[in-house]
Amino acid sequence: MQRLGCGAAALLRRSQGDGAAAALVPQLVRSYATTQMTIRDALNSAMDEEMARDETVFIMGEEVAEYQGAYKITRGLLQKYGPKRVKDTPITEAGFTGIGVGAAFQGLRPIVEFMTFNFSMQAIDQIVNSAAKHHYMSSGAVTCPIVFRGANGAAAGVAAQHSQCFAAWYSSVPGLKVLAPYDSEDARGLLKAAIRDPDPVVFLENEILYGEPFPVDEAVLDKDFVVPIGKAKIMRSGSDITLVGFGKMVGYNLKAAELLEQEGISAEVLNLRSLKPIDRDAIAASVRKTHRVLSVEEGWPQSGVGSEIISIAIEECFDDLDAPPERVTGAEVPMPYAQNLEAAALPTVEHVVAAVKRMMGK
After folding, report:
1. What is the pLDDT of residue 127?
2. Cα separations (Å) of 332 from 198, 217, 303, 348?
3. GO biological process annotations for this chain's record (predicted)?
């Protein structure tokens, strides 16, 4: 009951912060003909189009139907596709995740929403020991085309049990694919690719970015637009250092690159998008070009995604490096609740800038 109480209050604050009247009123799925699209709309439209394309796709999770989604990602889908394909579940992640995995074994394509990936810990046996391993253990006879999606990493004011980044956890598991979108192009194209993929996919979103608008071109709005899994994207070209990140940290790296440019430092920004499989070739090519690499992530430092990025840089480009690879991460503490301590536990643009200047000898 304590979890439900604090979660409901936090969700209400977040909904109101994005426009309470619009967020709490069910809306039918719109057609998007604008060059600006929020992450929320990108995810919503991707699921809508994939459900229309393939009748085996369905959505399940807490509050995804009648309430239109805790973050309104699934708004309008119940009205359009009905309760057989948009299913509210009890607060039992192990139970409904197991149902989703079993449905995937039988040829359906479930999208399982976790209100936050912190709650996926209740279902980690189903994700890791069932979904990820069954194709291998059945000698390829059984596939598991399922998407596990939801908010990952730090939100705002929701404390230690709601603010962990699970990117490193899940990307260490053979049999899973792990995606982490930054902008609306990523969110829309990667989610479509995930739904169509024959393997289980962990799809890590960021709550803070749900209401953020990003420009998209007409190609992104095409119903068959997908972003290929396993391919990183250069967001900004540079020659002095490579900044590697995923999710919200890509935005931090882009802001840091703008500030560094004013001081004569040219930073290349690489958006990983796919954490498993990770694009080793893109990382190596960028490091060979810039001769320095800094990894930036919200997660904890030990055994983090940054450790893998640095390993790739050393294994592939050791002779090309002009400085030791470094990383900016969250602090090695459970997330504090107090606003000032929460801010101190998370990376900032200033941390990125300071690390780059240190690596450049400035």
Report:
1. 98
2. 36, 40, 11, 15
3. pyruvate decarboxylation to acetyl-CoA
- The answer on 253 and 211 residing in a single domain is no
Q: Is 162 a catalytic residue?
A: yes
Q: Is 93 a catalytic residue?
A: yes
Asked if 242 and 165 sit in the same domain, the reply is no
The DSSP letter of residue 126 is: I
Instruction: Give me the long-range contacts of 94-97 (CB less than 8 A, separation at least 24).
Output: 94/122, 94/123, 94/125, 94/126, 96/60, 96/61, 96/123, 97/123, 97/126, 97/127, 97/148
| From 49, 135, 162, 298, active-site residue | 162
Do the beta carbons of residue 68 and residue 78 sit within 8 Å?
yes
Containing structural domain, residue 113: 2-221
pLDDT tens profile 306-317: 999 999 999 999
pLDDT at 304 over 70: yes
Contact between residue 61 and residue 96 where contact means Cβ atoms under 8 Å apart = yes
Range 231-260 average pLDDT: 98
Mark which of 182, 197, 221 sits at the end of a domain.
Answer: 221
249 and 198 belong to one structural domain: no
Catalytic residue, from 62, 93, 113, 207: name it. Answer: 93
Count of structural domains within the chain = 2
Quick: pLDDT tens for 175-184: 999 999 999 9
30: DSSP letter: P
Q: Which of residues 221, 254, 287 is at a domain's end? A: 221
